[in-house]
Amino acid sequence: MMLSGADIIVKTLIEQGCDVVFGYPGGQIINVYDSLYKYRDELRHVLTAHEQGAAHAADGYARMTGRPGVVIATSGPGATNLVTGIATAYLDSVPLVAITGNVPSGQLGTDSFQEIDITGITLPITKHNYVVGRVEELADTIREAFRLAMSDRPGPVLVDVPKDIQIAQCEYEPLPPVKADEKKAAKDVRIQEAAECINQAHRPYVYFGGGLINSQAEEEVLALADRIDAPIGCSFMGISGVPTSHPRFLGMQGMHGHYASSMAMHHADCIIALGVRFNDRVTGNREKFATKAQIVHIDIDGAELSKNISPAHALRGDLKLTLQKLLPLLEQKRHDPWRQAISQLKNDENWSLDHREGLTPRNVLLALNRFTKGELPVATDVGQHQMWAAQTLEFRKIRRFVSSGGLGTMGFGMGAAMGAQIATGQRTVLVTGDGGFGMCLNELATAVHENIPLVILIMNNGVLGMVRQWQTLFFDKHYSNTVLDRKTDFVALSKAFGADGRRVTDLNGLDEALKTAFQSDGPYLIECMIDKDEFVLPMLPPGGSMDDIITKVGD
Amino acid sequence: MESFTLAVLVQNQFGVLNRVTSMFRRRRFNITSLSVSVTESDTRSRITITADGGGRDKDQLIDQLYKLPVVVSIAEIKEEDCVTCELLLLKVQNKPELRSDIHAAAEAFGAKIVDYTRDSVVLQMVGTARNIDAFIEVMQDYTVLEICRTGVISLERGAMTIEKKAEIY
């Protein structure tokens, strides 16, 4: 059938199995919005308050489902407002398809009104991007964008569509949804070598990241740890990859990781690293990182295998498929001394945990766990609350933690939480801080309009806590621009947006507020008053090693 | 310093060089020579890159290149297996008392005179990067006005092509 470019965009999205798009209209995307109106019964559009919120919502949707999230924006500022969202998705390997309008082809390059070179701008933060040159190429370009976004290591792809291409007509034939490229296991010879290395280990440590979630290799990773009798740790991006309560699971390691997990990694003689990239927050000083260990590194992205560390065994391939081939080659082991060492580390960690009473960050999150039961999506912003959440929250289901790990985007939370809720249909929690929430609170308008059951838990300490923590430790308590001292009344604010909320100053109040929030139809905001000098501990100072770990701060 | 040379076959489309060089800049690869040209196929361009670094840098560069959807295939250029050359144009001041010396140097390196005026001589030379470096070094004895070189281009000896090599990766 003959369709306009705008119709083709919407029809192709529907054809690709897309059920919701997030976006914001504007002059150079107006034709697409006309098509969205036409096909409104087949494709839901969620109008956000700002394009950044739309990008984060599409990201949150993708993290929940594993399918590409779709965001639509107009040219110029609409497109540039997506940039932080696209970069966030890029750094966390989230499949995202961004569609932007642009000025008509003939005006490109002339600095027309609201014209921007968005493909140039997003070149380093997308897997690939396109300016569509002919309407005949439009449908296939969008299909290609979906395929690229999902294939290998997922990531964002942007399609820029000049207005004349949206207007022009051509023949359109629906096609079945594209599939991600076929995944492959690592080479047999590499798997064999890795197996020999692992079989010789006495202190193995299984370490996984976001790659486990993308590859859905949960069962294989647990089977691996059982086979070789290893504890399991994860990177920040791995959180929710295996159930938190699994007896082998020591939690996140790294700069603010669990003591036992970081220590076990430090003392291991073999680290089986799965879908991770050995970020600086993970290794600290790379010269002193896991010096006793042989590292077996498996990743679908070959470029990760030689980027940050030089592993003894580098295996490029899909995690799930590679582990399925590796497992039969591994001997069943039992390492009693290593088990004892691990349980000693766990005891030490328990000792150093924060056991204070009252409205401490840990108690707040433990209370939250009783309500989510590890089943519901939890999104965060970035900062102290994010690290407390990473340390304390419980997950029983994969893909339930939604947080900006790589880019560390403050303002990510509201959009992402809405996307996660829409993707799952489950009540979703946003754990945020007064700083991060301040960056994205405009999206409360969207949450109210869409009647999204969102529990917004603000840990309000009146300061930019993470930067303050660094200032306390490394900058002689010069609290430069981290004391917010704002007069914002968050409860009144939530009411102004048409939501409801409550301020809590003790654990009983919190419990009551959570009860109300978890029965609420739409968004409900809880402002939780936290001391400004709470610390995220333990802490590995930047560039430090395990010898420098800070577990207590005295004054 | 260690260095290596790669031939990269890419899709011949708008902005492809920008995609490749943007990645070099972002990942901080130190590229010492780069040339781009048409190929036997309308749909392909060929980029030849020389970069500083050892084996790990090379692996990393190859892996990062393969992540760009516009990259079709990559082959490492090993001097012993390949015909490699570069083109140099060098403009030097012409003075009566130096004329014969410049001539002699040019002849020794097989450089051709392609422009000649009373005040200047433009020499053209085709050779390996090393020979061209050596020639430029010799010409420093005179007043060099301008230098322009193309960067290395290279083809593997025998019937093997870069496109066939893509299967091997």
How would you describe this structure to a colleague?
The complex is a heterodimer of chains A (555) and B (169). Chain A has 555 residues and is of the alpha/beta class. Chain A has three domains: 2-171, Thiamin diphosphate (ThDP)-binding fold, Pyr/PP domains (Rossmann fold); 188-351, 3-Layer(aba) Sandwich (Rossmann fold), CATH 3.40.50.1220; 361-536, Thiamin diphosphate (ThDP)-binding fold, Pyr/PP domains (Rossmann fold), CATH 3.40.50. Chain A has 23 helices and 20 strands. Chain B is of the alpha+beta class and 169 residues long. Chain B is built from five helices and nine strands, in the order E-H-E-E-H-E-E-H-E-E-H-E-E-H. Chain B has helices at 16-27, 55-66, 99-109, 129-139, 162-165, and strands at 3-11, 31-38, 44-52, 71-77, 82-93, 112-116, 120-127, 144-149, 153-156. In chain B, strands 5, 6, 7, 8 and 9 form a five-stranded antiparallel beta sheet that branches. In chain B, strands 2-3-1-4 form a four-stranded antiparallel beta sheet. Classes of the chains: A alpha/beta (555), B alpha+beta (169). Chains A and B meet through loops of A and helix 1 and helix 2 of B.
